[in-house]
Structure formats: structure tokens, C-alpha cells
Write a structure and sequence with these properties.
With about 425 residues, the chain is an alpha+beta fold. It is built from 2 helices and 32 strands.
Length: about 425
């Protein structure tokens, strides 16, 4: 009996051991599960940390964007200042990320820190500069010379027999110029080295084409947009025409691929401009029109916006077009309208500021006069207003979102906008 009890106790002990201590297989399975749970826990922890950091950075980015977009600055600090050789100063033109400074006796290419990259001397009575992409042309209006530049310096000089009225340049250095004589006008074309291209357009006020008032080359140089004046029943009317100088335009008479008369019946077109290789605009005395040459052989009038008020100024960039109008019925004497290159409306705002010049650089509109400026964002908000202690000729964006380059005949400064106002 005692043996039986002893065996019974051993059996019960073994059963108890099996319940308390797992087998080797159970041990392995338990260890794998523990490791898996630990890894899942680490992954979840890392995911939570990532989400928290993402939210923090996103909130910071949105906050910074709203800060730069909405805040109204009224003070500034000077980052750097350079004395400029004034000479017989005429003006500045945006030239890539830098500027072209030109005068009656020469031109210089100035970088974003006020350093002169190159200087070119010449003599002109009435210089006028034109820029597109990597090329610039300076012409002597009513004179006979055209200086052509890229970012490295002069690439050529064109000399004409007839006086130059206006010109335009492509981003590849091709120049088109309106030349006039006593009975007709001509549009001549020149290579970047100044040599004459075998292309010419003759225009008469009383002829079929009309008299060229303004011209603009597309950036790639294959299309020419012209504003013409022509007589119809004894009345002067406006016309917009497109010429194509690529291979596909060879078979078309005078390479004329599109003409628009009806939109300008009884009106004159004063200025035309290719904004990029597809979109262009025309400014008449009672409207602004937006065109597309996506189909190179069939230009399209996308939108014509009537303007009842007097147009005081027009300005543009590759992305935007701006108008400043008289605003006789509002509390502000002026109204600014800004559109995208395809004619879509961006914003409208009234103002009382007595400006003399208007520009667009990036997503900012600049209004300025001899000693002060205003900067607007593309939401129509006033970002900065301030005065300066030196004459102002041009303003553009600086190297950082809250900096500006302010240029005058004798000075160039980069300024950093500082807090001094409230949200508008």
C-alpha cells in the first residue's frame, strides 16, 4: 500500500510539474511571442514619435508660412549696402536672379550682393533695355545700335541704317527691332552676335498689316506677337497678330498664323507681351486680353477683360499680369487688379499710395516711388510699407523670404523686414 501511495504521489508531482513548467516547445513559442510583442511595442512607439514630430514640423511650417504671408512689416534692417557708380543712370532691369544696370555710357551686370559681374561701355542718347531669360538687349531709341548680352557679357552688336523705334529679345539671344523710315516701318531680326537674319516684315499704316506699335518675341524665339494700328473707314483701330518663324510656319504667307481685329474695334493696342512660350497678353486702351499659342498655327484668345476706368499702369512676370486703374467711385483713388497668365483673376485691392512704378517678382507685387515702397502678397495683403533714406529706382525679392533688394542710382541695399506692425 505504501508503495502504491508513493507511486501515486510521484504521478501527482509529475502532473503538477507539467502544469507549472512548460515543455521546451512551449518555451520556444512563448519566447517568440514575447519578442514579437516587444518589437510591435517598439514600432508603435516609433510611429507615435514620428507622428508627433511630423505634427510639430507641419505646424511650424504652416505657422512660418502664415507668418511670412500675413504679417505686415513696417520696419527693416540693412543686411548689406553698396555704393554704385551712377554715371548717366537710366534704369535697372531684372536679369535672371540678378539685375542689369544701364545708362547712356554703359551697362553692368550686378549680382544679388551688389557685386558687378561685368561692365560694358558704349555711348547712346536714349538707351532702352529688354530682357528675356539669359539674354538682354540695350537699344539706342531713334539711334542705330543694339548691344546684345548674356550673363557672361557682350555677345554682339547690331548696327542699323534706319532709326530704331522698339525692340524685343528672346531667351536665346534673337532680337527683333522695329525700324522706321518716312513712308513705312520694318521689323528686322538679328542673331545674338549682331548679324542680320534673313527675315523681314514690312508694314504700312494704310496697308493690310497695319503699322507696328509694339512687338514681343516668345522666349524660344520662334513666335512674334505684334500690336498694330490700321485705318478702317477713316478710323484708327487696333490689331494683334502672331507670326511663326519655326519650320511649321514656312509655308504660310508672311508667316502670319493669327490676326485679331474684332476685339479691338474702335480701340488701340499699346503693348503686347509674351509671358512664356504659350501665354501672352495685349494691353488696349479699354481692355486686357490673354492669348494662348499652345496650337502654334492657331493662336487662341482665351479671355478679354473690359476696362472702363483709365489704365494708369501695366506690369507683368512670367506668371502674372497686373493693372492699376483709376478708381473714381471708391474711397481709394487707385485699384490694383492681378491675373494669372491664362487670365484667371488673382486679387483686387484699392489703395491711396502715390506710386511711380509697379513690378512683380515671384509672388510679390511692388509699388514704389522715389523714397518709399509697398509690397503685396498674391493674396492681396499688404506685407510691407516703409520709407528709405536714399532715392529708390527698383525693388525686387532678396535671397530670403523676408528680405528685399532696394536699388537706387547710387546705392544698392539688401534689407531684412522686421516686426513692427499687426496682422492685416
Amino acid at each position: 500500500m505504501s508503495e502504491w501511495n508513493s507511486m501515486n504521489r510521484e504521478i501527482k508531482k509529475n502532473q503538477l510539474r507539467r502544469q507549472i513548467v512548460p515543455t521546451s516547445v512551449d518555451k520556444d513559442e512563448s519566447s517568440e511571442e514575447i519578442i514579437k510583442k516587444a518589437r510591435d511595442k517598439v514600432r508603435k512607439k516609433r510611429l507615435r514619435i514620428f507622428l508627433v514630430l511630423f505634427i510639430v514640423f507641419a505646424a511650424g511650417g504652416i505657422g512660418a508660412f502664415q507668418y511670412f504671408r500675413l504679417y505686415h512689416y513696417t520696419r527693416y534692417g540693412v543686411v548689406w549696402a553698396k555704393q554704385m557708380n551712377e554715371g548717366s543712370y537710366e534704369g535697372y532691369m531684372d536679369f535672371g536672379s540678378n539685375v542689369l544696370k544701364y545708362s547712356k555710357d554703359g551697362a553692368s551686370y550686378v549680382d544679388s550682393q551688389g557685386k558687378e559681374v561685368w561692365i560694358q561701355s558704349y555711348e547712346m542718347k536714349s538707351p532702352k533695355a529688354y530682357v528675356s531669360g539669359d539674354y538682354a538687349a540695350i537699344v539706342d531709341q531713334q539711334g542705330n545700335s543694339i548691344y546684345i548680352f548674356d550673363k557672361a557679357g557682350k555677345t554682339g552688336v547690331a548696327t542699323t541704317v534706319l532709326p530704331i523705334v522698339k525692340a524685343t529679345v528672346s531667351s536665346y539671344g534673337v532680337v527683333a527691332a522695329i525700324l522706321e523710315d518716312s513712308t513705312s516701318n520694318y521689323i528686322y531680326f538679328f542673331n545674338q552676335d549682331g548679324s542680320v537674319l534673313d527675315v523681314k516684315i514690312k508694314a504700312l499704316l494704310g496697308g493690310d498689316s497695319g503699322y507696328p506699335v509694339d512687338i514681343s518675341l516668345s522666349p524660344d524665339g520662334t513666335q512674334l506677337m505684334g500690336a498694330y494700328a490700321y485705318l478702317k473707314n477713316g478710323t484708327l483701330n487696333g490689331r494683334v497678330a502672331f507670326h511663326n518663324f519655326s519650320e511649321i510656319g514656312k509655308s504660310i504667307p508672311d508667316r502670319l498664323v493669327g490676326g485679331f481685329d474684332q476685339p479691338y474695334d474702335g480701340a488701340l493696342v499699346a503693348q503686347v507681351r509674351f509671358l512664356d512660350d504659350t501665354y501672352s497678353c495685349a494691353f488696349a486702351d479699354n481692355s486686357v486680353s490673354f492669348y494662348s499659342t499652345k496650337n502654334a498655327l492657331s493662336p487662341e484668345l482665351l479671355k478679354q477683360i473690359p476696362v472702363q476706368e483709365e489704365i494708369k499702369s501695366v506690369f507683368y512676370s512670367p506668371k502674372y499680369v497686373g493693372l492699376i486703374l483709376d478708381n473714381p467711385k471708391g474711397e481709394n483713388p487707385y485699384r490694383m487688379e492681378v491675373y494669372k497668365a491664362n487670365g484667371d483673376h488673382v486679387f483686387s485691392t484699392g489703395f491711396q499710395y502715390q506710386y511711380t512704378s509697379a513690378d512683380i517678382d515671384g509672388d510679390h507685387v511692388f509699388l514704389y516711388n522715389g523714397d518709399s515702397c509697398r509690397v503685396y502678397s498674391m493674396s492681396g495683403r499688404l506685407k510691407f510699407s516703409g520709407t528709405f533714406d536714399f532715392p529708390v529706382s527698383k525693388i525686387r525679392n532678396g535671397r530670403l523670404p523676408n528680405t528685399l533688394i532696394v536699388m537706387g542710382p547710387q546705392n544698392m541695399k539688401e534689407i531684412r523686414l522686421q516686426i513692427g506692425g499687426q496682422y492685416q
